[in-house]
């Protein structure tokens, strides 16, 4: 399968579905210089270990950028032709924005507006959280709703959209 070297690919799936591995392979297959934008924060020791394990697993061929909040600003700085940038993941970014009480609509609109301007090949990963039961508390429902709105905006801008389940990709767009 050939993969484009420009445009945006959006990769959705559940936890441990294989979406990050699939996204990393899209970047590797592009043959471009690899950049990884990590949006997660190490709130506890388990998360710190998880982050370090992911860095080690990716290996030295990746340049890692940790950016929990200012995603568009970071992408603007590292965006260049000849690069592939993997953003992993949008739902962690949404969590960070909620915790910092950011203007979700403005942040989402800024990212969606920036995507068509990118010169690098972008691969964006996110957790699909809207397929389960309705959450029992308001914060969880707000999170699910924010993620769903953001996913629709990113999917509209993306050239390719994949849904990953059990390690198997389903191409939904492109």
TrEMBL record:
Example of a GO biological process term: cobalamin biosynthetic process
Q: Give the annotated active site.
A: 54
Signal peptide positions are: none
Q: CDD domains per the record?
A: CobU
Keyword Ribonucleoprotein in record = no
Uppermost EC category: transferase
Q: Which UniProt keywords apply?
A: ATP-binding, Cobalamin biosynthesis, GTP-binding, Kinase, Nucleotide-binding, Nucleotidyltransferase, Transferase
Reactions accelerated catalytically: adenosylcob(III)inamide + GTP = adenosylcob(III)inamide phosphate + GDP + H(+); adenosylcob(III)inamide + ATP = adenosylcob(III)inamide phosphate + ADP + H(+); adenosylcob(III)inamide phosphate + GTP + H(+) = adenosylcob(III)inamide-GDP + diphosphate
Q: What is its EC number?
A: 2.7.1.156, 2.7.7.62
Pathway per its UniProt entry is: Cofactor biosynthesis; adenosylcobalamin biosynthesis; adenosylcobalamin from cob(II)yrinate a,c-diamide: step 5/7; Cofactor biosynthesis; adenosylcobalamin biosynthesis; adenosylcobalamin from cob(II)yrinate a,c-diamide: step 6/7
What's a Gene Ontology MF term here?
A: cobinamide phosphate guanylyltransferase activity
Question: Which protein family is named in the record?
Answer: Belongs to the CobU/CobP family.
Which NCBIfam families does the UniProt entry name for this protein?
PRK05800.1 (NF004469)
Q: What is this protein called?
A: Bifunctional adenosylcobalamin biosynthesis protein
Q: Which organism is it from?
A: Rhizobium gallicum bv. gallicum R602sp
Source taxonomy lineage?
Answer: Bacteria, Pseudomonadati, Pseudomonadota, Alphaproteobacteria, Hyphomicrobiales
Give the encoding gene's name. cobP
